[in-house]
Design goal:
The chain is mainly β. It has one domain: Beta Barrel (Porin), CATH 2.40.160. Helix content is 9%, strand content 56%. The protein contains one helix and eight strands, in the order αββββββββ. β1 and β2 form a beta hairpin. It is elongated, with a radius of gyration of 21 Å. The two termini are 29 Å apart.
Length: 203
């Protein structure tokens, strides 16, 4: 997990360094008519067709009646079919420990959520790009030993939420995201919560 955090931190530093140089065309010293002040404008990419995001993921899992947490990696890709609408694929990998919420306690766990669905984004050529999405697929949990019904389990799941992308450069943005995840394990419904932060690359 420390390696994942260090990787995301390094990527953020690189992106901020690149952004300090300013996007292409911004602040250029081209000639202007006498008496007309210089204006520094910022223009987002021409509504990129693809977005690929990589970031840190924190989850609060309510699988066993008492929540436990996982940390991991979140990867997503969006193909925009127009200015506002896109189709998204997302995968989240989590690693954690059940603590006292399981019998026996302190079970190591690995989780995987993957799915696809629609995304709506407000892209207005500015630095801030808010968006909402719905992703539907499957969630998988694997515990390091079987305890009752625990072990290796897969069920249908879906995530709904949204976030904000803040443009750092012409093709790079910082993302903050929050989602509710619903699943159905052991013939019962569960609700989980996740927070994601990381970098977005626009093409």
């Amino acid at each position: 997990m420390q390696r994942i955090i260090c990787l995301v931190g390094t990527m953020l530093l690189i992106a901020v360094s690149a952004a300090a140089q300013g996007p292409a065309g911004a602040g250029s010293s081209g000639s202007s008519p006498r008496g007309q002040g210089k204006t520094r404008t910022f223009s987002i990419r021409e509504y990129s067709t693809w977005q690929v995001a990589l970031g840190y993921q924190y989850n609060q899992i309510n699988l066993l009646g008492s929540p436990f947490t996982t940390n991991g990696l979140n990867v997503s890709a969006v193909r925009y079919l127009g200015r506002w609408f896109g189709v998204e694929g997302q995968a989240g990998f989590g690693f954690g420990n059940t603590g006292t919420t399981s019998t026996p306690p302190n079970l190591n766990t690995q989780s995987l959520f993957f799915g696809g669905g629609p995304r709506l984004a407000y892209r207005n050529r500015g630095r801030i790009e808010p968006w909402i999405h719905g992703v539907f697929g499957e969630q998988h949990f694997r515990f390091n030993q079987t305890a009752g019904v625990l072990g290796s389990n897969t069920a249908l799941a879906g995530a709904a939420g949204g976030g904000v992308d803040y443009l750092l450069g012409t093709h790079t943005a910082f993302r903050a995201e929050a989602d509710f995840i619903g699943s159905r394990f052991f013939s019962a419904n569960q609700r989980h919560f996740q927070v994601v932060s990381g970098l977005v690359f626009n093409f």
